[in-house]
Amino acid sequence: MNAGEEAHLIGLARAGDFAAFGRLVDMHQAAVRAFLRRATGNYADADDLAQEAFARTWEVLYRFDGTSSLRTFICGVAFQYWRRARRSRNRREARETAYADLSDTQTDEAPERAAQRLALRRAMEELPEDQRAALALCLGQEFTHAEAAEILNLPLGTVKSHVTRGRARLQAALGVVGASHE
Amino acid sequence: MSKDLELAALLGEAPQTPDPGFRFDVLSLTSQRARRRASRQRALRLVLVSTLVGLVFPLAQAFGLGFAEMQPLLLVAGVLAFAYVLALWMLEGPRAVLAHSRAVLRAPLLRA
Question: CB-based contact (8 Å) between A55 and chain B?
């Protein structure tokens, strides 16, 4: 779909057209859900947050001025929701363990891969909020560094260094798992 | 770069195709929130109007106006309020008379 068609759908959605908004949801759900899945580490939580973010986008669509892409705008909303959910989760001291989260997504994978996944999640949990979000946005190559900077409201250089350092931490965590399996 | 993609896949994979179930959930959540917001606004408007109506009499007394002096004003206000309620009922009520007429009028326009 080209930019003109997207702009047309945005115009319709602003006027209250639900079908047009549905098409916009279809266009951008993969990127938003992927970002939140990587950031939260739990597919069910990620999809709940993504739904909230899209519903909020419908309410604040009039604020979208077209200077950035709609995908970036929605991910900005999703980032705010994720941050809020994370803080409230920290406050009530999450009862779920990483193992329980893991069982939510992948049950039939090889033990080595499950161990890698778990190690990565633990490493992600230890990263600062912004660094974690930057990695979740940029690793899958759905977003450029510039787009991530816009979503997270951070300078471009900071995002680049977050991604470089975060990637090194994740690779170190994977290295430890690899060594323990040899 | 492929290392990055591998890391990303381990952290969480993107859905390959748009999920209609997800879209349905988003739209139902959106309409639920819109309904909740509309009912909140309606309640707020109701409280505001009731408060204003309730304030009229104490304020009038405070300014030294008795019922006899206010009678014409109250009559006009009552007639206006009745007309407003009647208009709302005709446009949006359970048997919306004007809504039906509007639909009848619109049909030939759409065919044209």
Answer: yes
Residue B18 contacts A, CB cutoff 8 Å: yes
CB pairs under 8 A between A and B: 100
Q: What CA–CA distances, in Å, run from B90 to A68, A182, B41, B97?
A: 45, 79, 21, 5
What is the spatial distance between Cα A47 and Cα B23, in angstroms, rounded to a whole number? 11
d(Cα B51, Cα B54) in Å, to the nearest integer? Answer: 5
Give me the pLDDT at residue B105, please.
Answer: 62
Residue B13 CA: distances (Å) to CA of A39, A67, B111: 11, 29, 49
Per-residue model confidence (pLDDT) at position A87: 83
Given this model, what pLDDT does residue A28 score? 92
pTM score > 0.90 for this model? no
Kindly report the backbone phi and psi dihedral angles of residue A131, in degrees, each rounded to the nearest multiple of 5, phi listed first: -65, -40
Nearest CA distance, A23 vs chain B (angstrom): 8
For residue A106, the model assigns a pLDDT of: 56
Using 70 as the pLDDT threshold, list the residues of chain A that sit under it.
Answer: 1, 90-108, 176-182
B31/A41 Cβ within 8 A: no
Q: How far is A153 from chain B (nearest CA, A)?
A: 22
